[in-house]
Write a structure and sequence with these properties.
Elements: H1 2-85, H2 88-94
Helix pairs in contact: 1-2
Length: 151
């Protein structure tokens, strides 16, 4: 009979241990599944966001292309108007007839003499003279008064 009691006791201990272990590992598997779902939804959101950004820049590119074409049309309209309504010299100065000529204009009529760039130092009259950035520049040396002298 004692063998039967030992067997029943071991069976009860095994059942309790099995239930405890399954509840422990069971909660981990549900937590893993929850985290996998969150990662999957984050990845889906990221892919949607990337598609949205790509679509945005594709539309932006098309709009800039249209804007550039409209700008060219307006520029050509102004150039033709300037040619028709102004004298030839004025029209050439205002709007060159070629669309890219505005960016390639030769500014040779302006004064091209080189500028004298100001120097960031004071010229020395003597090579032994302290420069403007020297700590002792334009400071007069004073003798220390004798501590024992009366004021």
């Amino acid at each position: 009979m004692s063998i039967w009691l030992i067997a029943i006791g071991c069976l009860a201990i095994g059942l309790v241990a099995g239930i405890a272990l399954s509840s422990l590992f069971g909660s981990n598997s549900s937590r893993i599944k929850e985290l996998e779902g969150r990662v999957k939804s984050a990845m889906e959101f990221h892919e949607e966001y990337q598609d949205s950004v790509s679509d945005h820049f594709e539309v932006t590119s098309k709009l800039i292309d249209q804007m550039t074409k409209k700008y060219k049309e307006v520029y050509e309209h102004l150039a033709i108007g300037a040619q028709d309504l102004c004298s030839t010299e004025v029209a050439k100065k205002l709007l060159p007839t070629e669309s890219d000529a505005v960016f390639e204009q030769d500014h040779s009529d302006k004064d091209t003499t080189p500028l004298n760039v100001p120097k960031d130092y004071v010229a020395k009259s003597d090579p032994d003279q302290a420069g403007a950035l020297s700590e002792s520049f334009s400071l007069k040396k004073t003798k220390a008064k004798n501590k024992n002298s009366n004021y």
